[in-house]
Design goal:
By secondary structure, this protein is of the alpha+beta class. Helices cover 47% and strands 13% of the residues. The chain contains 9 helices and 3 strands; from the N terminus they run H-E-E-E-H-H-H-H-H-H-H-H. It has helices at residues 2-6, 61-68, 74-84, 91-100, 107-119, 126-130, 138-151, 157-166, 170-183, and strands spanning 21-27, 30-37, 46-56. The protein has a 3-stranded antiparallel sheet. Helix 4 (91-100) packs antiparallel against helix 5. The longest helix has 14 residues, at 138-151. The protein is globular, with a radius of gyration of 19 Å.
Length: 193
């Protein structure tokens, strides 16, 4: 909690000694940080309704999030990736998110970066995203298809069509369907008999 809050210049911590975490979200013209609680050991984190810290967007907001990508804490990096995906696209944000795609072995960070690149509509990242179509990890292949659909990079439409037919994982084949739908790809829809 302290590391995440440390990236905000002005914060109020309700319970800094707790094991719960902050979660970031965009609130109007600033960032709202809400307390994330895990009521059961293996259950999902649930946001509490209280907003604990608010920081208005300023000159340093984007730079602070990019700097947070180098933090040793996994949670800080993950939240920074998600927050960058909510900012307007800029070359610095795109470069920072693309750099997170190279985290071999940290699938969660790669997945979050793919998602954020899709959210900001980074069409120039199509080549970097498409590399994950060949990933041995089915989760990353599926996310790459969805992200390419979100940014509508038609260069990879034939490969997504092929994965719809040939991918050994059902989850990947299912991910190809909405991706092709974003392209409004009628060639992939079978003709009625």
């Amino acid at each position: 909690v302290r590391r995440i809050a440390g990236w905000l210049p002005e914060v109020t911590l309700a319970d800094p000694d707790s094991d719960d975490q902050f979660g970031a979200g965009v609130l109007g013209k600033g960032f709202a940080w809400t307390w994330m609680q895990r009521p059961e050991p293996k259950g999902p984190r649930i946001p509490r309704p209280e907003v604990l810290a608010v920081r208005t967007r300023g000159v340093g907001g984007k730079e602070e999030l990019i700097a947070a990508l180098s933090d040793p804490s996994f949670d800080v990096r993950y939240e920074a990736i998600q927050s960058l995906g909510r900012l307007p696209p800029s070359p610095a944000v795109i470069r920072a998110l693309e750099s997170m795609l190279g985290y071999e072995g940290l699938v969660e960070l790669q997945y979050a970066a793919l998602t954020s690149l899709g959210h900001i509509g980074s069409t120039e990242s199509g080549g970097r995203i498409a590399q994950f179509l060949e990933s041995p990890d089915a989760l990353l292949r599926a996310r790459a298809m969805r992200t390419l659909g979100e940014i509508r990079d038609g260069r990879y439409l034939p490969r997504i069509r092929q994965l719809l037919d040939d991918d050994p994982e059902i989850d990947c084949r299912l991910a190809a369907v909405p991706a092709l739908g974003k392209f409004r790809d009628r060639e992939s829809v079978p003709k009625p008999v």
